[in-house]
């Protein structure tokens, strides 16, 4: 594949779709490489094989084998897919991790609270820009329609995702929908999700390393043929296999702490879009009633 022109290369999305479809069949070491590539799309085109291997805890030969597994002669040919995608976008700005390291190196032990706040705000802003650029309108519209048609909406999110789950339950309770937070209080995840049925929707919010409780609730929903809306960070997420519809969020992070800004924003957008659709239906019903009278 080394001699192939850029016209013959797959797009990044096509490549990631192939990786996602084959992910479960990959050996553990190659799964690590797949996860790295999914989470570092913007930098993988310039990352050294040895650095990727070290981050994944594998031998550099595993990185090469991964590329060959997907039809490339070597890893540099796989990187060309990402280079092609970013050609013409201008000089890329340093990653947030690079900016943080630079900030720490330049001002060791002298960071003010304001400096930390501004760095975190910048990371959150970057996450929102990435959310906007990568939003799949078709999947988003499908998610809204699914919620619109649901008898009951169950929401599950644990640990870091719990505040987001709590918020979307609060917001959705301002609609006529019956909404349930699967909180797991008292360890009762099984009891709280057991009544889910085919006409219901389960919203599952989870990011790496992916809550086991959330995965359990999704399996139950799948078993009962309920529809599922998964909000996660990767096509390779173990939640994706149970998703009727899925939305991806990659949060900005600063000082090894990930923001929740983009996830909250996405959930607010879901609520507003659903409320808009429901109100339209109410208005249409009123108009129809008026004409009948």
Automatic annotation (TrEMBL):
GO terms for molecular function: carbohydrate derivative binding; DNA binding; DNA-binding transcription factor activity. Gene3D superfamilies: Glucose-6-phosphate isomerase like protein, domain 1, Winged helix-like DNA-binding domain superfamily/Winged helix DNA-binding domain. Residues 143-288 form the SIS domain. Residues 13-89 form the HTH rpiR-type domain. The keyword Electron transport does not apply. Pfam families: HTH_6 (PF01418), SIS (PF01380). PROSITE patterns: HTH_RPIR, SIS. GO terms for biological process: glycolytic process. Coiled coil: none annotated. Keywords: DNA-binding, Glycolysis, Transcription, Transcription regulation. PANTHER family: GLUCOKINASE (PTHR30514), TRANSCRIPTIONAL REGULATOR (PTHR30514:SF20). This is HTH-type transcriptional regulator MurR. It comes from Paraburkholderia aspalathi. The gene is murR_2.
């Amino acid at each position: 594949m080394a001699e192939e022109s850029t016209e013959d290369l797959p797009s990044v999305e096509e490549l990631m779709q192939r990786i996602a479809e084959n992910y479960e069949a990959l050996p553990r070491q190659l799964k690590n490489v797949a996860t790295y590539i999914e989470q570092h799309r913007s930098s993988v085109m310039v990352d050294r094989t040895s650095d990727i291997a070290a981050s994944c805890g594998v031998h550099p030969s595993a990185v090469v084998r991964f590329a060959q597994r997907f039809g490339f002669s070597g890893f540099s040919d796989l990187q060309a897919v990402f280079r092609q995608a970013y050609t013409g976008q201008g000089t890329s700005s340093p990653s947030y991790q690079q900016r943080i390291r630079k900030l720490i190196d330049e001002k060791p032990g002298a960071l003010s609270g304001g400096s930390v706040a501004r760095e975190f705000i910048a990371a959150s802003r970057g996450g929102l820009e990435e959310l906007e650029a990568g939003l799949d309108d078709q999947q988003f519209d499908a998610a809204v329609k699914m919620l619109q048609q649901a008898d009951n909406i169950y929401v599950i999110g644990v640990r870091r995702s719990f505040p987001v789950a709590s918020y979307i339950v609060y917001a959705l309770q301002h609609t006529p929908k019956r909404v349930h937070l699967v909180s797991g209080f008292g360890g009762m995840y099984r009891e709280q999700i057991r009544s889910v049925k085919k006409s219901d929707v389960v919203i599952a919010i989870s990011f790496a390393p992916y809550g086991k409780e959330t995965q359990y609730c999704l399996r139950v929903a799948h078993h009962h043929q309920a529809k599922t809306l998964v909000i996660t960070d990767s096509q390779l997420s173990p939640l994706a296999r149970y998703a009727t519809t899925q939305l991806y969020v990659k949060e900005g992070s600063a000082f090894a702490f990930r923001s929740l800004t983009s996830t909250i924003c996405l959930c607010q957008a879901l609520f507003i879009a659903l409320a808009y659709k429901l109100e339209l239906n109410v208005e249409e019903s009123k108009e129809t009633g008026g004409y009948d009278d």
